[in-house]
Design brief:
Number of strands: 27
Strand content: over 45%
GO cellular component, one term: endoplasmic reticulum membrane
Membrane topology: Peripheral membrane protein
CATH superfamily: AttH-like domain
InterPro entries: AttH-like_dom_sf, Ceramide-binding_SVF1, Svf1-like_C, Svf1-like_N
Structural class: mainly beta
CATH class: Mainly Beta
Order of helices and strands: HEEEEEEEEEEEEEEEEHEEEEEEEEHEEE
Protein name: Ceramide-binding protein SVF1
Distance between the termini: 27 Å
Oligomer: single chain
Helix content: under 10%
Largest sheet: 14 strands, antiparallel
GO biological process, one term: response to oxidative stress
Length: 379
């Protein structure tokens, strides 16, 4: 009970948590009897909208046939059950850096959901899941420099790590005081446009959808993040990793998957690895910005064949560096404002890399594709 009281104080005050140790987190996929992954149904795609402190996002990443990349996103933030804010974000990185990256981030008014919590609505914005659960349509007129009209159609099975995609925090596993949940569509077909002041961006190509929920203060849940979304003509490969703060033993949690058209080749929480193979000290933020990285998947396919896949190479220079505290809605800053040592920055990278993949006795296949990667440093 004393641990619970200390944690609640940290929740309210935003202060650093005591050191509970690694036993105070139950990472996704490590619960006894858990499957490696769970294939998503429509029911897994509901907005959860916790009544306590949380940040919930639905993010749609695109890699276009013409070489552009980016994402559109809705962020739902609840601060201590006192105030809810919603934001629509749009990011475009243009092919060959032909133009400066586009970034728009707009607070939303009069938000709401359909009766079953599948679709999101606000003034000038809609994010709707189809009746059969196979595609989303995203429309936004929240910013005149990024008028969005997109359709993301699932092109391979979606998945969540373990039984339900959730890692729980707390010294009593039956009564967690925080959580982290992720669910993915690793491969999507994308169509539609984003209209900017400089013209229309055709977004036809490949995509990836992520539904994430941080059911606690973000800086209490994780100190660092790595994320990789690779899309090529044949393969989609995604890998997400976070490292908890010292209060939870600097525990590393990973989930990832590899898909091809109509098929999930591998998904799970084991056999995954991320390394920053080269880095440089960023004099402005004092974080070690990666300049080269490797991402690795190791496991078995559904029919029992050994699978090994690697992406490695130069990822820098960064396409953008996001000062999180400068971008989040004003009231949300209260989540981390009083936390000593919290200085969140996201480094974003959009290089082309070659996936090397071997399945069973087949020869190693190599295929170049577009990558959207993030390295996030929080505390």
């Amino acid at each position: 009970m004393f641990n619970w009281a200390k944690q609640q104080l940290a929740n309210v005050a935003g202060t650093q948590e005591p050191e509970y140790g690694p036993e105070a987190i139950q990472p996704v996929g490590t619960h006894e009897g858990d499957p490696a992954f769970t294939e998503l149904t429509k029911n897994h795609l509901r907005w959860i909208t916790l009544e306590t402190t949380c940040v919930e996002t639905q993010t749609f990443y695109f890699s276009t046939e013409t070489g552009h990349s980016g994402f559109v996103q809705v962020i739902y933030s609840n601060v201590a059950g006192l105030r809810i804010t919603c934001q629509f974000n749009c990011r475009i990185f243009f092919a060959n850096n032909e133009k400066p990256a586009l970034w728009s981030s707009d607070p939303l008014d009069n938000y709401g959901f359909d009766e079953e919590q599948f679709s999101f609505f606000a003034d000038g914005v809609s994010m709707e899941l189809s009746e059969d659960g196979s595609f989303y349509t995203i429309k936004s007129a929240s910013n005149e420099n990024s008028l969005v009209n997109l359709k993301f159609t699932r092109a391979a099975p979606g998945f969540a790590g373990g039984k339900n995609g959730t890692s729980n925090y707390g010294t009593d596993p039956k009564n967690p005081w925080g959580s982290m949940r992720h669910a993915f569509w690793p491969r999507c077909r994308v169509e539609g446009v984003i209209i900017t002041k400089d013209g229309e961006v055709d977004c036809k190509g490949l995509g990836f959808f992520s539904h994430a929920l941080q059911g606690m203060k973000p800086h209490h849940a994780a100190a660092r993040w790595n994320f990789c979304n690779f899309q090529s003509p044949t393969y989609s490969a995604i890998l997400m990793e976070f490292t908890t703060p010292q209060s939870y033993g600097s525990t590393v949690v990973r989930v990832g998957g590899i898909a091809t058209e109509g098929k999930l080749l591998y998904a799970g929480t084991k056999g995954l690895d991320v390394k920053h193979t080269e880095s440089k000290q960023d004099s402005e933020t004092d974080w070690p910005e990666p300049t080269a990285a490797s991402y690795h998947w190791e496991g078995k396919t559904e029919d029992g064949k050994e699978l090994s896949a690697t992406l490695a190479g130069t990822i820098g220079p960064h396409s953008d560096r996001v000062d999180v505290m400068a971008e989040v809605p004003g009231f949300v800053k209260a989540i981390v404002a009083s936390a000593a040592g919290t200085k969140p920055y996201i480094y974003q990278f959009t290089p082309k890399l070659t996936l090397e993949i071997k399945i069973g006795d087949e020869e190693v296949k190599k295929e170049e594709g577009m990558i959207f990667a993030e390295a996030t440093f929080i505390s």
